[in-house]
Amino acid sequence: MDFEFSLAQLTVLNSSPIEIAKIAHNCGYNYVSLRQIYMGLNNEIRYDLKKDKKMKNELRSYLKNTGLKVLDIELARIFDGVEIKEYEDAMETAVDVGAKHILSSIWTENKGYYIEKFNELCELASQYNLTVDLEYVPIAGVKNLDDTLEVIKNTDFDNAGIMIDTHHVHRAKDNPKRLMEIPEKYFNFAHICDASKLIPKEKDEMTRILREERLYLGEGGIDIKDILNNMPIVPYSIELPNLKKVSLVGYEEHAKQCLISAKNYCEKYVHGRYSYPKEA
């Protein structure tokens, strides 16, 4: 089976858009997933393609010459006081570089407010023919599959999607078999990585691991195959930050090992919800 993979920004966090594209192409990825909406994290460098037209043109030329594509633009967070219109520049950038999806997550507990704002985000993105793919995060406001499905159920726009991250499914203790019940139209891409089976009890430790210490597929204790085999086959964006590995081998070698381990794992274990596994 042919799988497609994207190199996510968090895996090579401080790479510029052209740098991540070159790393992805050199390693054999199909896509890149670019951060153009910033989170204000420590040591996070901002590369704004809307303002840096020279870099944007260089990226577009590189994509055209190599066949590499941009999968999605991140991260349109919904939080108390968010101004959805401020994400419009990133949507324009997404169209300029050929991306099809905007990644979103929700970081407020105010349900009525975040459902309203998610609808507003979908409406704005629909003007650019972009999907808005909601990722639940166990340390955020929308933290599990039930929360996510409730948002989608209350969304009035058909460009809303659900973005499953293997790390978050495990940490939220969601039953992967429930993914089988979700219509195929809501799945556009997924995040994959591995991590320790043990779920941290402290929020700070959970945050540290998801930002600094995820593992190559097959190295940890997440039942990744059970998650992916209850979903349609979609492009897999490898979001796998690991500061120790990067410090030892650098971004490109780390990205290469991410892809090798993901390909090996998927070819061995993943068949998707519409296919059947090969006999042993």
UniProtKB/TrEMBL annotation:
<dbReference type="InterPro" id="IPR050312">
    <property type="entry name" value="IolE/XylAMocC-like"/>
</dbReference>
<dbReference type="InterPro" id="IPR013022">
    <property type="entry name" value="Xyl_isomerase-like_TIM-brl"/>
</dbReference>
<dbReference type="Pfam" id="PF01261">
    <property type="entry name" value="AP_endonuc_2"/>
</dbReference>
<keyword id="KW-0413">Isomerase</keyword>
<protein>
    <submittedName>
        <fullName>Sugar phosphate isomerase/epimerase</fullName>
    </submittedName>
</protein>
<feature type="domain" description="Xylose isomerase-like TIM barrel">
    <location>
        <begin position="23"/>
        <end position="230"/>
    </location>
</feature>
<dbReference type="InterPro" id="IPR036237">
    <property type="entry name" value="Xyl_isomerase-like_sf"/>
</dbReference>
<dbReference type="GO" id="GO:0016853">
    <property type="term" value="F:isomerase activity"/>
</dbReference>
